[in-house]
Amino acid sequence: MTAPHSDLNKPKRKTGSRTISWRARLSLVLFMLVAAATVWTTNRALTHRFTESTRNRAELRLALYSGNLLSELRQHAIVPQLLARDQTLISALQSNDFSLSTQRLISFVDEIGAASIMLLAQDGRTVAATDRNRLGETHRNAAYFVDALTLQTPEGAIQRAIRATTDWTALPPDAYLQGEAVMRLETRVPFQGWRMASFTTYSSVRERVNAVLALEIMGFAILLALAFYALSRKTALRMALFQRESAELRVLNARLQREIAERERMQKTLAVAEQSLAQSSKLAALGEMSAAVSHELNQPLAAMKTYLAGARLLLNRNRPDEALASFGRIDDLIERMGAITRQLKSYARKGGDTFSPVNVGDALASSLSMMEPQLRQRHVKITRILPEEPVMVMGDRMRLEQVMVNLLRNALDATKSVADPEVEILLAAGETATLSVRDNGVGISGFDELFEPFYTTKLPGDGVGLGLAISSGIVNDLGGRLTARNGQNGGAVFEMQLPVLVDGIEAAE
C-alpha cells in the first residue's frame, strides 16, 4: 500500500509548466506594453516633425503666392492714375459727352497692354469701354466700383464692413474647414492693408506618419509571430512530455484507485464492526443491568399491590377520598416504571443514520414545554439566554430533545434540596453550537464515571443511571460532545457542543 508513494513525485512537473505559462503571459503583456509605448512615442515625435516640415513648406508657398499677387496688383496699379489725368476723359465726365471716350480708351489698350478698359459714371453705369458690347452696363454693386467709392466715404468704413462679413483672421492656428482639421498661416500683403491666409490640411502629415507606424507595427507583429512560434514549439515538446507522463500517471492512478477502493471497503467493514460491537456492548450492558432493573420494577409493583389492597379496604369502609389518593400514588408508580422502560429502550436502540437541519432554539422550547409541569410543581426559576438569530445543527430532533429533557431532569433532581431552585440555560453560536445548562444544586462528584451506564448518585428508586450515558451517546452520534463541570458559584454545568450548520455546510467537522 506504500509502494506507489515514490511515483507520486512525477506530477510535480505540472507546477513548472504552470510557471512557464505564467511567465509567457507576463512576457506577452510586457511586450504589448513596450510596443504600444513605442508606437505612441513614434506617433507623437513624427507628427511633430512632419507638422513642422509641412508648416515650413506652407510658409514658403504663402510667401510665393503673396509675392505673385503683389506683382500682379502692381502691374496695373498705375493705369487708373494715368487715365485719371487724361483731359479728354476729364472733359467727357464733366460735360457728359462720351462720344469720343470709347475711341480714346481703345487708343490706350495697345500702349498700356491691358485686356479691357471701362469708364464708369458716378452711378456705376458704363459710359465708355474698349468692348462696345458692355456699354450701358451697371456696375453699382461690383467690388471694384465699391472699392473706388471708399475714397468718398469715411476712411476704412466699407473695408471694415467687408472684413466683418468674411473675417478669416478670427480662426485659430489649427481650425476646421468643412469638418476637416487644417493648419492656418497668415501674412500681410503691402497693398491697402490686405492679408493673405493659407489653409493646409494634415492629411499629408497623417499619411507619412501612418506609413512609418505601419512599418513599425509590422515589425512588432513579426517579432510577436516569431515569439508565438517559439512558444508553440516549446508547448508541443512539453505536451509530448506531458502525454508520456500522463500515461504513467494513468497506470499509477488505476493502482491507487484499487488501493483506495480496498481501503474504503475495509473502512466500511470496520465501521459496521464497530457499530455491531457498540450495539453488542449495549446489549451486554442491558444483560448486566437486568438485576437492577428487576429491583427497580419490583419495588413499584410491590408498592402498587400494597396501595391496591389499601384502596380496596378504604372503599369497603366508605372512604373514597382516601382511596383516590392511593390510586394517585399508583399512577405515579406507573409513570416511574414507564420512565425506566423508556430509558432502557432508548439505550438499546441504534442511532439513526438520516439527519436533517434542526433549530436548537425550537428543540429547547419543546423540551421546556415537556418539562413544564415538573418545573412548575417545583417552582424552579428558569433563565434563558438565547441569540437573536436561529442556531441550526444537523441531527435528529427527537433525540436532541431527549438529551435536553435528560439535562433538565438532571438539573431538577440536583436542586431538590435547594430552597430557591434556579436553572440557567445559555445557547451560543460560534464555531460550534453550545448549549449550557447550569443549576444551583450541590454540584458533581465522580467525573470519571459520570457518563458510564448505571452510575448514579440518586437514591434508590429515583433512577438507574442511564440518562447521562444515553445523552452522551446521542451527542457523540451527532458529531458533538457532552461535558460536565462544577460552576464557580456552586452547582453543576452541563455543556453540549454540536457542529453549526451554515448554508447547508457544517462549520465544524
TrEMBL record:
Histidine kinase domain mapped to chain residues: 292-502
Positions of transmembrane segments: 211-231
Superkingdom to which the source organism belongs: Bacteria
GO MF annotations, alphabetized: ATP binding; phosphorelay sensor kinase activity
EC assignment: 2.7.13.3
Annotated compartments: Cell inner membrane
InterPro entries referenced in this protein's UniProt entry, alphabetically: HATPase_C_sf, HATPase_dom, His_kinase_dom, HisK_dim/P_dom, HisK_dim/P_sf, Sensor-like_sf, Sig_transdc_His_kin-like_C, Sig_transdc_His_kinase_DctB
Residue stretches in coiled coil: 239-276
Main localisation: membrane
Catalysed conversion reaction: ATP + protein L-histidine = ADP + protein N-phospho-L-histidine
Assigned GO CC terms: plasma membrane
The keyword DNA repair belongs to this UniProt entry's keyword annotation: no
Keywords assigned by UniProt, alphabetized: ATP-binding, Cell inner membrane, Cell membrane, Coiled coil, Kinase, Membrane, Nucleotide-binding, Phosphoprotein, Transferase, Transmembrane, Transmembrane helix, Two-component regulatory system
SUPFAM superfamilies (alphabetical): ATPase domain of HSP90 chaperone/DNA topoisomerase II/histidine kinase, Homodimeric domain of signal transducing histidine kinase, Sensory domain-like
Membrane protein topology class: Multi-pass membrane protein
Job of this protein: Member of the two-component regulatory system DctB/DctD involved in the transport of C4-dicarboxylates. DctB functions as a membrane-associated protein kinase that phosphorylates DctD in response to environmental signals.
Protein known as: C4-dicarboxylate transport sensor protein DctB
Lineage, uppermost ranks: Bacteria, Pseudomonadati, Pseudomonadota, Alphaproteobacteria, Rhodobacterales
